Amino acid sequence: MERPSLEFNLPDTHEEGKLYVVDSLNNLNKLNVCPAESQHSPDEEENTGGTGGSMAGSNTRNQCLFFITFILTLIITLALVSFVIFLIFQTRNEVDQISSRLLSEKKNIEELKKLNNIILKHLNQSRIKE
């Protein structure tokens, strides 16, 4: 692709063409001189009145959305943490109940062993007597 030449023959153009060429050169100069961040289109300046009101409203709205999102995230996190703590306590209660049942069953088994030993001794003594 060929790059267009920036040389213009101003005397050869008509009056309207001269205005267009000068305007184009001014726009080109603005592009080269102004940094990209500070360029605003004329439409934006007309809409905001040059005061940046649109930016302030947008910034406030973004802060509000961020704040609402942050609060919702905190509430959801608090609910999840509360649920996890509830589950931990429920599990602890269940484990305590199972442990107490196991201890009582262990005592019952030991009593049954003692009774079994007593019965065996009694049977052995009764056989000996016979």
UniProtKB/TrEMBL annotation:
Stretch list, region Disordered: 34-56
Keywords: Membrane, Transmembrane, Transmembrane helix
Domain of life: Eukaryota
Keyword Transport included in the entry's annotation: no
InterPro entries linked: DUF4577
Record field: transmembrane: 64-89
Protein name: LSME1 protein
Species in which this protein is naturally found: Brachypodius melanocephalos (black-headed bulbul)
